[in-house]
Structures are given as C-alpha cells and as structure tokens.
Write a structure and sequence with these properties.
Length: 220
C-alpha cells in the first residue's frame, strides 16, 4: 500500500494539480495541514484525501502525516512540486528492485529560461556530490526504514536534511524521473539570492546552529 503525504499551508494555487496527479494512483492521500485559511482543505477533501490537521511547521506536518499514513510505503511531496507523468511506474519499479532503500527524484523547476536551468544543474550537482537531496525532490521510503531512522524531526527547517543524513548515502537512490517545483519562491527572492541564502543556512546548520532559530531567521 502506497500513501502519498503532502504538507500544506494555504496552497490552494498549487495543491489541486499535485492532488490530481496522485488521485486514483496512490492507495491513500494524507494532507497534513498547518492551519490553512484558504480553500486548501476543501480542495483536499474533493480529492478524497485524509486530513491530518495540526500545528504549522513542515517537519511537524511531515511527521504528523506519517503517523496518519497507513501504507507500508510513503511518498512525501511538497504541495508545489509536480511529479513526472510516469511517477507511479517509477515508484513501483523502485519498490520492486530496491525495497531496502529510500528514493528521490531529480530536481527541476517549473519555469523556462537560463536561470532555472542553472539552478537545476547546481541543485542536482549538490545531490550527486554530497548525497543530499532536499524535500522538494520528494522522498519515497518504506514504513520500516522510516521508523528505523527515526522519521522526520519536529523542526520547521532542515527536517529534510535531518532525515537524509540519518538515512545515509548508501540507503538512498535517485529515480529516473524529474520533478518540477514551482518557481514562485525563486522569482520572489531571486535565483542567486535563493542559492546564496540556502548555502548560508545549510552551512550554519551543519556547524551546529539551532534549526528553530534558523527557521525564524529564514522566515524574516
């Protein structure tokens, strides 16, 4: 059984497309909401999703969604990340051939132009060199392995880095497909600005900075 877990917070503009991609293909959809005040919850119910409603914070929401999920495999995806059309076949192939490992997709941005392509190259190079995929690349993981590494921590930032580090490079595999993440935050803050900020924060986190303090600074 495959459960798709999606953390949401006022995502009515993007989540309908993500839900439409997984509806009728996943055995279960769990939307872990952090207090949406727009149409996110109504849209989720329209797609027969189960709602796990609680506090805000992506780590908290992912962990809560995992607790609600009933599948022996879980696919965690962001509410603004679009899966490849053949995502189901890729997922099933991984489950069949690499049941002992977790998996993620190649990173992409849903935008045309040179800057998005350069950001994709740099992001995928980071993943290849350091074995460090981010949450917007999705995470496919068995319930057994998820519980074994302790799952997502209740953090507002770097929860994806924490679980990937707990898994280790040997327990991760990149699937052939490419996701396409919304370009909104890149357009808002600038592609270079996002890159510099991400490098700064991941460096501070790696050196031992409190993830909650970093999250508060990140939001500002």
């Amino acid at each position: 059984m495959l459960s798709v877990v999606i953390p949401t917070l006022n995502t009515q503009e993007t989540v309908p497309f993500v839900l439409a991609q997984v509806a009728e293909r996943a055995d279960e959809i769990v939307v872990s909401d952090g207090g949406s005040t727009d149409e996110t919850l109504a849209i989720s119910l329209d797609h027969q999703a189960r709602l796990a409603i609680g506090c805000e914070g992506r780590g908290w929401q992912l962990a809560r969604g995992a607790r609600w999920a009933r599948g022996d495999w879980m696919l965690f995806i962001h509410a603004d990340t679009y899966l490849p059309d053949n995502w189901q076949a890729l997922v099933l192939e991984h489950i069949k051939s690499n049941p002992e490992k977790a998996a993620y997709f190649k990173f992409g941005i849903k935008a045309k132009g040179l800057r998005p392509r350069l950001m994709e190259i740099l992001s995928n190079a980071r993943t290849f060199l350091f074995g460090l995929p981010y949450g917007d690349q999705g995470l496919l993981i068995s319930r057994q392995l998820y519980d074994q590494v302790g799952g997502y921590p209740n953090w507002s930032l770097f929860e994806d880095v924490a679980i990937v580090r707990a898994l280790g490079r040997m327990n991760l595999r990149q699937m052939k497909g490419r996701v396409a993440t919304s370009s909104d935050r890149f357009e808002k803050n600038g592609y270079l600005g996002n890159l510099v900020r991400n490098i700064s924060y991941i460096t501070r986190f790696t050196l031992g900075a409190d993830p909650e303090k970093l999250a508060r600074a990140y939001r500002k």
